[in-house]
Design goal:
Layout lengths: L13 E2 L10 E3 L9 E5 L1 H7 L3 H4 L3 H6 L11 E3 L2 E4 L2 E5 L5 E9 L2 E8 L14 E2 H17 L5 E13 L3 E11 L5 H9 L3 H15 L9 H23 L1 E2 L21 E2 L23 H20 L2 H9 L2 H17 L8 H15 L3 H9 L7 H12 L5 H17 L4 H9 L9 H11 L5 H10 L30
Antiparallel strand pairs: 1-7, 2-4, 3-10, 5-6, 7-8, 8-11, 9-11, 10-11, 12-13
Helix pairs in contact: 4-16, 4-17, 5-6, 5-8, 7-8, 7-9, 7-10, 8-9, 12-15, 16-17
């Protein structure tokens, strides 16, 4: 594998900080070439984050580099090892079975690592081919950027590169590579790996790497490792609260899919809530329903307990490690979730009884099953001060989401009464609610429509979705069709761990 023949001279310095760890943490290997690659989609925002020069973006070398066919100067590609619990069961050693970490770029916007997902077999592939398919790659690319637009902590995606190389899944598909971007890709399972082997030296080296690279403030306390665990627990609580507030379901919250930096990681069988059901299972492979929408906060805490167990040798006390989770995660989740839900409901100031009102609202949604995103968006657009016929007309689009409109009217009366307890200008409230309730989310049927076109080499819908989802809270009337309720054919869509 060769370096590019001629890169622009202003290309930013490229390095791989993870490669400075001992070689027990990874295997060095180059990505496997993808023949005749082509660009499927590119996020201009992520390109700007990385400071990529325009000459590269518009060059034929772009597809070659981010397919893994050519290496950037300073790149030290590797696949990392980790372990983890999958569906609540210890799975032992796992690792980057189809991902290659190229390295990172440091600029005035931070430190960004680039990882190619789908770049071929590694020692951790467990017999698989190490490839990703176009279908799943488009989904991950779009959802990474959609979540960023929603304001949810997430890994990003620079691009999708496709090729005609066949890949066998449930059927023959074509290969693709996603260029993921994040400050780092260390997982809960990265720590579980060394703890399960009683390798305290490597466990401490990994913790020191995370602290020194990402969380230097943890060095300022008596026990930096306890501080790191508390930081992870807090950020994870905040992350899950954001998921719940936008109706996002990850689908496979294994400990190897949980970021030590509190970012959404590994987009596979995800989904956004449509007709509300707290027990909805978005992953067809989740036969026991472990990762339903309602279970996500509990699963995240369970995963943190697994991480705390791995941290126990560093903190020198299993009970203290578990306490680090108990004393941070629950409060972080509850406070963030209540804050986000108060914003979604237009509550100017929180009151002591708001937790009950929020719970009653979710009970109401569970009973009547309106579309989650449309319910809150349409609620944002109604006045809280109208009466009589004017109120009925203003509330009609919201009431149309319900078969039992009398039940909707009862809830609306309770909502208006709560608004009156902390009154503010109706226009200001509506604007604040619109900024908290997206009009657009990446519904599975939207992704599927883009995928079907992309399989025919028409990538226009991928770009159109990307453009829309960058600004999900704006009206964007040219994209009104992307805010519609799912068509009938969408009810047959299923996503699984192969998605």
């Amino acid at each position: 594998m060769n370096a590019p023949e001629s890169l622009p001279p202003e290309f930013p310095a490229f390095h791989n900080s993870f490669a400075a760890l001992p070689e027990a943490f990874y295997t060095r290997l180059a990505p496997h070439p993808l023949p005749d690659p082509n660009v499927v989609g590119v996020s201009a925002e992520v390109a700007d984050l990385l400071g990529l020069p325009a000459e590269l973006m518009n060059s034929p070398q772009f597809a070659e580099i981010f397919a893994g066919n050519r290496l950037l100067p300073g790149s030290e590609p590797l696949a990392a090892v980790y372990s983890g619990h999958q569906f609540g069961v210890w799975a032992g050693q796992l690792g980057d079975g189809r991902a290659h970490l190229l390295g990172g770029l440091r600029n005035d916007q931070g430190h960004w690592e680039i990882q190619l997902k789908g770049a071929g077999r590694t020692p951790y592939s467990r017999g698989a081919d190490g490839r990703a398919v176009l279908r799943s790659s488009i989904r991950e690319f779009l959802c990474s950027e959609a979540m960023a637009g929603l304001g949810v902590p997430t890994t990003r995606a620079l691009c999708v590169i496709g090729a005609d190389q066949p890949v066998r899944r449930e059927e023959i598909e074509t290969a693709a590579v996603v260029a993921r971007v994040a400050p780092g890709f260390v997982r809960f399972g990265s720590f579980e790996h060394w703890a399960s082997r009683n390798r305290s030296r490597e466990l401490q080296q990994l913790a020191d790497y995370v602290i020194d690279t990402f969380r230097p403030e943890c060095r300022d306390v008596a026990n930096p490792y306890d501080a790191l665990l508390r930081d992870v627990s807090r950020r994870t609580g905040e992350l899950i609260a954001h998921w719940m507030a936008v109706g996002f379901m990850h689908g496979v919250m294994n400990t190897d899919n949980m970021s030590i930096l509190g970012l959404t990681l590994d987009y596979g069988p995800f989904g956004f809530m449509e007709a509300f059901d707290a027990g909805h299972i978005c992953n067809h492979s989740d036969h026991q329903g472990r990762y339903t929408y309602r279970n996500q906060p509990h699963v995240a805490q369970w995963n943190l307990y697994c991480l705390a167990e791995a941290f126990a040798p560093l903190i020198n006390d299993p009970e203290t490690a578990r306490a680090a989770v108990d004393e941070t995660y629950g409060d972080a989740f509850a406070q963030t979730f209540e804050r986000l839900m108060c914003a979604k409901l237009g509550l100017r100031h929180a009151l002591p009884d708001d937790e009950n009102f929020i719970g009653e609202t979710f009970g109401f949604l569970q009973q009547h099953r309106p579309d989650f995103t449309l319910f809150f968006r349409r609620l944002s657009q109604v006045s809280g001060s109208l009466d009589g016929e004017a109120m009925a007309k203003a509330y009609a689009p919201l009431r149309d989401l319900f078969v039992d409109r009398a039940a909707c009217d009862t809830w609306l009366a309770n909502w208006r009464a709560r608004l009156a307890q902390t009154p503010w200008d109706d226009g200001e409230r509506q604007a604040a609610m619109l900024a908290a309730n997206p009009k657009y989310v990446l519904r599975n049927w939207l992704a599927e429509a883009a995928i079907r076109k992309a399989k025919m080499k028409d990538y226009s819908e991928v770009q159109r979705l990307l453009t829309c989802l960058r600004r999900p809270y704006d009206e964007q009337p040219e994209f009104d069709d992307l805010a519609a309720q799912p068509p009938d054919w969408a009810s047959g869509l299923e996503v699984s761990c192969s998605s």
